[in-house]
Every structure is written in structure tokens, then in C-alpha cells.
Amino acid sequence: MPCRSRSSDAVEKSGQSARQGHNVAVRYPRIFATTSLNDTRVLYVEPLKWVARLQSQGVDAIVRVEVEAGHGGTSGRYKQWQEVSDENAWCLNVMGINH
Question: Which end of the chain is more exposed for a tag (fewer CB within 10 A), N or C?
């Protein structure tokens, strides 16, 4: 998952509009961001800062930091399945479909 998206741009724009006297209410979905300690393209601190900024705006956002993965995610079929199953479980939980 990229660490920067339109949502983060909207946070910055809403903050700028609020400073200019405009009251802009922005609603964000729940966010599950993933990052990796071994990512050579995006340092793990960038998604952490992005999620912290979203959380400061009241957004329900969490981060999963993968210890072994790189920029493309985990390697190995079973590890990739585990990663996808974790994301799917989070999505089902957000939708209220859990046991």
C-alpha cells in the first residue's frame, strides 16, 4: 500500500482551508496501512507519520509494520497468503462480519 494517497492530500488541504477561515469537514474511511522495515524505496517512518497525521484528524487508522518484507510485500507463497488473509480479516471486521 502506498504511504501517500489522496486522503493525506485532503488532510493537508482541509488544514489549509481551516487556517484560511473555511470550515471544511472531511470524512475518511477506516484505514489499514502496511509498511516494512526493509523497504528500500519508502522508509517505514513515512507511513507512520501519515497515519499519525490522519489519527490526529480523528481518522480510525492503524499500521502494520512487516519486519521481513520489502517494498513489494512478503516473499513466499504462504507468507503472501497470510498477508492477504490479515487484510481480508480486517476488512470483514470493519464491515461487522466477524466471529
Answer: C
**Could you report the per-residue pLDDT of 48-67, keeping only the tens digit for each?**
999 999 999 999 999 988 87
Q: The C-alpha cell of 71 is what?
A: 517494498
Exposure b/e, 4-30, CB count within 10 A at least 16 = b: eeebbebbeebeeeeeeeeeeeeebee
Sequence-distant (6+) residues with CB within 8 A of 31 are 7, 51, 54, 59, 60, 61, 62
Q: What is the DSSP letter of 34?
A: E
Flag residues of the chain having pLDDT under 50: 1-8
Q: Which amino acid is at 4?
A: R
